[in-house]
Known about the structure:
Elements: E1 6-9, H1 13-25, E2 33-36, H2 40-50, E3 53-55, H3 58-63, E4 67-70, H4 74-83, E5 94-97, H5 104-110, E6 116-120, E7 130-136, H6 144-151, E8 155-159, H7 165-173, H8 175-192, H9 197-218, H10 222-229, H11 235-245, H12 248-267
Parallel strand pairs: 1-2, 1-4, 2-3, 4-5, 5-6, 7-8
Antiparallel strand pairs: 6-7
Amino acid sequence: MINKRIAIIGAGNLGSSIARGMVTKGIIDPKNLTITNISTDMLTGLKEELGVNITTNNSKAIDESDIVFIAVKPYVAIDLISSLKDSFVKGKHVLASVVSGIKLKEIEDILPEIPVVRVMPNTALSVCQSMTAISVSEKSAEYEGLMKEIFDQLGESFVVPESQMPAATVLASCGIAFALRFMRATAQAGIEIGFSSALSHKIAAQIMQGAAELIKANGTHPEEEIDRVTTPMGVTISSLNSMEHEGFSASLVHGVNAGFKKIKETES
């Protein structure tokens, strides 16, 4: 458990996932965690679920914290941080941005005396299974270890230079959606060949978990594990070849590249 007070500005999908993960994992005492949002409906639910502090007053939350997570939509982030700049205190606060497409320098220009870290997790934070990218600047380098301490408990984390944050965002953060789309398609296929929807989704989820654990445990290339289950003239290779003919791998690569181009446009 870290002996810090934390404020999460924004109780959307990522903000609430960070809160759930931290409380579930015991990273922070709920009484030291404050979540803000413009809507009280979502805040009330989080207070009842997690026992955290809630408020619609961002300045109050910042004043009562040491670490501030900004977890709002990209199009409101800069204006929001600008409106709150007088709430940050040199030597007291560190700001961690989970806003995609907003560079460290953009925030540092607003808060020149406050260390700023970029963090890009995915929503699997809530079950402590996120893959989280972290970038720091010269001003915030001393907080790299603290961020890794937090996010390694919420899954796994890795540090990259900020120039690689767009790629990390697409692969590690957006990637959760790509995996879930594969799971949905697998379950739909299962329904078509005779399983119930509930059982199809259970099978799809478990095979995804099993595949991931094989690679992590064995340290092998995915193709090595594929070779173990493909036999000459067999069912698996027939299915794989049909999928590849329809562009299975190519469509995923194209999709990742499309996302990368999009985020690069926002950071240019």
